[in-house]
Amino acid sequence: MSNQPPNDSSGSLDHLSLRYLRRVLDASHPTDEPYVLNEVEAWVIRRVRRRTIALAAALGALAVLLLYLPQYFWPAFFQEFTFTILGEGYDVPVISILYGVLLVYVEVYALMYVNLNAIRTIMAICQFPRAHDAQYDRHLKAIASVALSWKYGGIFSLGSDPHFGRPGWGLTSFFWFNTAKAFASDLLLRTLMFRFLGRFAFRQLTDLIGMPVFAFWNAFASFQILREAQIRVMAPLTIRSFVDELHEELGSDEAFCQLIPEALRCIGVQRRQYNYAHLFLFETIEDRFGIKLDTPSGEWFDRVPALSTEARSGLERLIIFSALVDGRLSWAEKKCLGRLHAQGIVSYTIADIRQIGKQYNDGKGLWV
Asked: Cα separation of 89 and 119, whole Å?
């Protein structure tokens, strides 16, 4: 393995990965694929993920406790102020609101620290990116973007610092938005409790019911971030290995190469900046095959039967690989794969494809 372990790490999570790294850096790995986790690597990452999600959930529950317990024990510090608007007096808990905003601010940055530390640990365990990689700097920036979903348009990024020393506003915005969803869920739950319990819904119960709500949303957000980070660590070498293998087998088959843009367009793979896996797949295919993928020629299903058996198999593998490499199987991709399966172009069922995707998300490689 090519990278040396980081020397600026701290905390129990980093020490866990460093103990593993010091043991493996001196060992030869002639059969170890860099984009496939062995049992020890998978165990360490699972432990890191579980601990991070548990810490995030605990931070959510603790924030609710810290918000309400002082108001129960020292109510004099949280007196309401009366404001008169158009002759009407309104009691506003100004101090409670400011105190709550301060708690959310602290919670957001605590969540960022916990999650960024876990991402750095995953990168260290997977030794990503490798020092000899020609696109080393680019991969560092890519892992720092962590776009969580297409609907966010790539806004939520970790910033440009490759070692996560100065996280940008993107991840901060994501956690603030996640906290807003937790507040909305808490408000909805309170409303339902007052509606069905009436006078039995005393204040302490309705206040502290937010503990599991905030714990859930924090845990879910951390799960999303860590899953996306792991996919971004695995995707570059997975893509490069697959495309190299495909080019070696079918690079000289002109009929197959002509259908590559059509197949990618059909499955919905585009040159999208916010989907790093698809963008890297696009550019790697263009570079390796020497073709342009932005100009598909049109209908292509009629040309598939004329392909050789090897080319049809390669086309099927490319379609399935493209759908799964970003770690998600969207509704549009499932619909397309179902149509291609009905036409005989794809022999795998949706259930088979989902199983392949699950293995990929578990760090076992994307084998098609």
From this structure: 50
Length of the chain: 368
| Spatial CA neighbour of 277 closest among 155, 146, 157 | 146
pLDDT average, residue stretch 99-117: 90
Q: Which residue has 């309104």 as its token pair? A: 90
pTM of the model: 0.71
Rounded distance between C-alpha atoms, residue 201 and residue 148, angstroms: 37
What's the rounded Cα separation, in Å, for the pair 62 and 175?
16
Q: CB-based contacts of 363: which residues, under 8 Å, 6+ apart? A: 36, 37, 41, 42, 45, 230, 234
CA distance to 140, 157, 278, per residue, from 174 (Å): 20, 9, 22
User: Which helix (H) or strand (E) is 81 found in, with range?
Assistant: strand 81-85
DSSP 289-320: HT--SS---S--GGGGGGS-HHHHHHHHHHHH
What does pLDDT average to over the chain?
A: 76
Among 278, 269, 346, 286, smallest CA distance to 315 is for 346
Q: Are 357 and 235 in contact (CB under 8 A)?
A: no
**Residue 295 contacts by C-beta under 8 Å, 6 or more apart in sequence?**
261
Least confident window among 93-97, 105-109, 160-164: 160-164
Strand partners, 90: 83
- DSSP SS3 for 39: helix
